[in-house]
Structures are given as structure tokens and as C-alpha cells.
Amino acid sequence: MSELCYFEGKFMPVEECRIPVTDMLIQRGVGTFESIRIYNGRPFGLTPHLERFENSVKTAGINTSEIDIKKIETIIREGLARDDCPKEGMVKPYMTGGDINNPKGHFPKPRFFMIFAPVASAKTQDEIDNGIALLPNRMYRPNPLVKSINYLFGLIPLGQSDGSYFESVYVTPDGEFTEGMTSNFYLVQGNKIITAPVGKVLKGVTRGIVLTLARENGFEIEERCPRESELAKADEAFITGSIKEIVSVVRVGDTTIGNGKPSPIARKIQDLYTANRSRWLE
Amino acid sequence: MSELCYFEGKFMPVEECRIPVTDMLIQRGVGTFESIRIYNGRPFGLTPHLERFENSVKTAGINTSEIDIKKIETIIREGLARDDCPKEGMVKPYMTGGDINNPKGHFPKPRFFMIFAPVASAKTQDEIDNGIALLPNRMYRPNPLVKSINYLFGLIPLGQSDGSYFESVYVTPDGEFTEGMTSNFYLVQGNKIITAPVGKVLKGVTRGIVLTLARENGFEIEERCPRESELAKADEAFITGSIKEIVSVVRVGDTTIGNGKPSPIARKIQDLYTANRSRWLE
What we know:
The structure is a homodimer. By secondary structure, chain A is α+β, with helices and mostly antiparallel strands. Chain A contains seven helices and 17 strands. In chain A, strands 1, 2, 4, 5, 6, 7 and 8 form a seven-stranded antiparallel β-sheet that branches. Chain A has a six-stranded mixed beta barrel with strand order 9-10-11-12-15-16. Chain A is globular. The first copy, chain A, starts with a strand and ends in a 7-residue tail after the last helix. Chains A and B meet through strand 3, helix 1 and helix 5 of A and strand 3, helix 1 and helix 5 of B.
């Protein structure tokens, strides 16, 4: 099933959805969005995603009086009820800076559109069976609480790499791992799961759910940045995201994690996530 | 005179130029561009701008076999020869990641468009008479050699400020000034002009010309980052850019520069820049 778009009050095939080159997203990267997973026609974690969306829009200087969370929810429901809308997929609402180029960082007339896209599988069978590798990207991610379209600086090192990496992971000049380019990052040591605190990283919706499930199931959580020096002695590592769910990390740069194979705790967390899905379907 | 666009082999009013929301510029910020000043229908510093453009495209992982500098130059000349093209203005070629979402950071099918826009004045009379203020933005600019559309992180602090600032200026956590959001930054101390070296900052075309003119006219140049601790004792500060040319900086954050008024060396550099314009018109 192909992609569907909502734009200027209408649903249309994604190929027909085009925005003017004067939009401040195109001119200056002023664009915020969300990726919300759809399972069997129902959005997962919709409320925290839309709350985060509103926060990103506001922090980006985009006029929030033009954003109506209830209305966006209604459009998502309308889209999902259509025959031409993928029922296993994701919905991505976007709010851009619009056409007024205000060099002072205020965007009074935003532009809104939404993409409904199929997701064949959250990850490949190879990624499930063998885990993935992450490429350390030595920089601070600017404004991590804003989910914006500015991913180029996470992609550049990946494009210059040997191609063996799933994505890049931000590590500060002092050796603190913050988050993956499109994911949260976790180290596991014994019964303890270590992950960066919100604020140093995006408030991951999957992250929040995973930490809830982990606590309910007896894991100890340490909310601090995993350190580079801890990689070699960690038992496991994994990343999480709304679309990819939980993915085992078996290598970070040149460092093998644990025994270099996907390991039991990441798998257990994935099983818990799947088993508890209905709690966050809306 | 309104803006003109070149897209998919045709010239058109800018309002008609729209790109698909599937483009990787819109999805992931994969977009590079240049702003080239046009004086009386002739491009200024065209060759260094197009060389930099090619380098940005390449570093961003965009397929360079799709970029032909000679062809872009021909399109610029064709545009400038048209009656509906602004003769005092700027031309902005863009190369985007195109519609193929390759998560590994390679973009095989880029999209190209170009905007010709009028520039009424490089800066306001008030900015010329009274100088401007810059807002310190405490972060490293990622990949400074790539001129990309990812400006959001320079705009956010500006949108949260009191509105008195012309733009933000990057300063590292150790107190080194690198560059303005859309400019290069200079401190003046006696006969010495201090500015960050290329690599720590974008290879500014105006920067190169200004340093050439300054050297020719007996100024000493120090290519190193101006330090925060040097601001209060500096005689002058200024920024440069292709569109704004040279602008006096009279305040950085809360620190007044010199006597708080536009001062003689920035003015002298601007006069040299204007007087020598024909050397870089192509």
C-alpha cells in the first residue's frame, strides 16, 4: 500500500503533496515532526507523541496558536479510517515555519501536513537475528528536546563510513553517549539498564514505555549517560524507537558489546513491549 | 520585482516552485545551497561560491555526478538575462537529497532548484548608522564546512531572546567565537584583525575577499578564534556575509564593544569592499 498525505484540508497521494521552496523548513530547517507507529489501524502512544510535538513546535519558535492537538488527532483518525490508508505503518505530522522569513526566530504562519506510510517490518530479520552496529558521532546534539528534521549532521559520518552501521550515535567530546540519530541508547550491566536522562536526549516515547516495563519487571534503571569506558565491559546494548521498537546493538565503532550476539535482556524487553502493546494503543 | 525560480528545466514565479514532501531535505534536512550576490545583473564571487557548493554537496553525501558547475553557471546567466529577474539581488542554487530515503547517508538522485530574489538593501540604514548586537549561542556548529539549510539551532536562542539581536554567534563551551549564524565574525585590536580559521568555520567567500583587502591595506591578520575574554578590550567587532557585506557589531550579549558605536576599521573595510567590487564580479 502506498503513502497517503493530508495537506491544506485534503487527503491526497503523497506524490501530489508538495510545499513551496519559500517555506522556512526548506530555507532554514524550521520543521518539526513526529513518527507515530500504527498497529492494525490504531495509533500507539499517540498522546505522548502529540504532547512532544506541541513542545517541539513551541521551542522552535513556531506559532503554537496554529496548532490544535485535538484537531490533529481527529485528522489522524479520519486518515486511518480511509481504505487507502496503510493500517500497519506510521503517521508523521509535520509543522513547518511557513513562508514568512523572520530572521528573529519567530514563525507566525506555520504550514501543517501529515504523511501516512506503510511499515513492512520494524526491522529486517538479519537485524533481529544478528543485531546491529552503531557509529560513534563525536558531537553534542543541539537542542535534543526538539524533534526537528535537522538530521544531516548525524547522516554525514554515516555516509563517510564503511557502510556497516545501522545509524550513528552521539557521543560527547568527554565520552558520554547521549542518543542514537533516530533512537535512544541503552547499556546493560547485570540487572542494570543505563540510559541518558531526558533533557540530555529527546523524550523518547518508546524510551518511557521501555523504562516503565523494565521497572515493572525488576530491572534497575540508572538515568545517566553511558560512558565510552563502560562499553567493553557491558553485557548488552540496545536502542529503541517508535518504528524500530527494540534493536540489539552488538558493536559500537570498533568495540564489540558482550559476546557480539543479540542477548537475552534486549530480547526480553522486546517481548514485554509486544505483550503489553495494548496498554498504549489509543 | 518578485522572485524567480528555476526548477526541472524551466523558469517560473517562485510561488509555483514546490518540492515533494518526500524529498530528503524535508524529511532529514539533506539540503545544501549558496547565496550569491548579484550587482547590476552580474554575480559576485561566483567561482568560489560554486566551488564551495560542490564541496557541500559532496560532504553531505549527495551524488556529485548530478552536479555540473558549468551548467549551473549557464542557468544563472540565462536567469540574469531575463526581464523578470531581479538585477540587484541574490541567486540561490539548492541541491537536495531527493526522494530516495537511504538511511546510510548516500543520496543518489538529488533535486536541484534555484531562486533569484531581489535584495533591496544589504542592511538597514539603522544597522549601518548604529551597528548591530549578536547573541552568543554556546555550541559547536556541526560540520561548519557544509553550507546546509540546518539553521534551526541558531534560530532557537534568537527566538527566545529579547529581540534586540541581529543574529546569533556560535561560541564554544571553552569561550571561543567561531562564526555568526549566517556570517563570519571578526574582532579588531589596534591594527590587528582576528577571525576563526576555515575548517572551524565555513569558508566564507566575503571572508576571503575581506582578508585579501585587509592584507593589501596594511592590516595584520590573525586566523584564530577570538576569545570571550578578549571582547571587552577589543576596539571593534564586525561580521561579513555575501548579502550583508560588512556590518559593525557594537554589542555581543551584554558586552559593549569599543565605544558602542560603529567604528572606523569596519567602515574602512566596507569602503574597500565597495571600491574593489569589480575585481570579483564575473
